[in-house]
């Protein structure tokens, strides 16, 4: 029954983790032609300050809502910042612009920043902000075990994807295997 008229099914691993392959020479040359506007803004003036402004604004917002205690407002601030940070830097892949021929389609923003180099000043800052927020929220919740557990899980969810061991590593039950997302591109 293997007469060539049927397309052969591509077999894939059932593993939950998979490593994103390195870019081809064509993709590397596309990346070198035009600067990546999606990731270069993190090195601009004021880009670091926006994180502090967002945290302060979130804290004020959760503090002025009636019925929310100080402990809960710190935890909500922590969770909201961590969720937004994960979504922005680690979940979304590619760029919203259509001028680079898909050169960054397989990379999330963290992998695009600073051309993928690890431990640059910007990446060190973005790694330290969640840690400092975690320490502040843990302190102001008076080390309550429930709040501590929630804040620790949120911190781990944001810090682990930033580590070099997680570079180009994907968890397939969260985002799906790339072959499943784009079945017509095989």
Q: Care to describe what's here?
A:
- Helix 3 (47-64) packs antiparallel against helix 4, helix 4 (70-91) runs antiparallel to helix 6 (121-140) and helix 4 (70-91) runs parallel beside helix 7 (145-159).
- This protein has helices spanning 25-33, 37-40, 47-64, 70-91, 109-112, 121-140, 145-159, 172-175, 178-181; strands at 17-19, 169-171.
- The chain is built from 9 helices and 2 strands, in the order E-H-H-H-H-H-H-H-E-H-H.
- It has 186 residues and is mainly alpha-helical.
- The protein is elongated, with a radius of gyration of 20 Å.
- The model is unreliable at 3-11 and 181-186 (pLDDT under 50).
- The chain has a two-stranded antiparallel ribbon.
How would you summarize what this structure contains?
The protein is built from nine helices and two strands, in the order E-H-H-H-H-H-H-H-E-H-H.
Identify the notable features of this structure and list them briefly.
single chain, 186 residues, mainly alpha, two-stranded antiparallel ribbon, 3% strand, elongated, disordered N terminus, disordered C terminus
Secondary structure elements and their pairing?
Elements: E1 17-19, H1 25-33, H2 37-40, H3 47-64, H4 70-91, H5 109-112, H6 121-140, H7 145-159, E2 169-171, H8 172-175, H9 178-181
Antiparallel strand pairs: 1-2
Helix pairs in contact: 3-4, 3-6, 4-6, 4-7, 6-7
């Amino acid at each position: 029954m293997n007469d060539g008229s049927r397309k052969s099914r591509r077999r894939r691993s059932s593993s939950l983790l998979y490593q994103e392959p390195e870019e081809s020479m064509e993709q590397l040359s596309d990346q070198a032609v035009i600067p990546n506007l999606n990731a270069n803004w993190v090195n601009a003036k004021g880009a670091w300050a926006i994180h502090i402004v967002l945290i302060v604004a979130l804290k004020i917002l959760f503090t002025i809502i009636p019925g929310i205690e100080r402990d809960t407002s710190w935890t909500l601030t922590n969770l909201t910042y961590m969720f937004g940070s994960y979504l922005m830097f680690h979940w979304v892949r590619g760029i919203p612009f259509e001028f680079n021929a898909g050169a960054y389609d397989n990379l999330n923003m963290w992998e695009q920043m600073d051309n993928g180099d690890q431990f640059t000043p910007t990446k060190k800052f973005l790694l330290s902000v969640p840690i400092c927020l975690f320490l502040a929220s843990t302190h102001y919740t008076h080390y309550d075990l429930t709040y501590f557990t929630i804040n620790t899980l949120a911190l781990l969810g944001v810090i682990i994807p930033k580590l070099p061991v997680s570079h180009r590593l994907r968890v397939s039950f969260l985002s799906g295997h790339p072959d499943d997302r784009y079945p017509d591109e095989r």
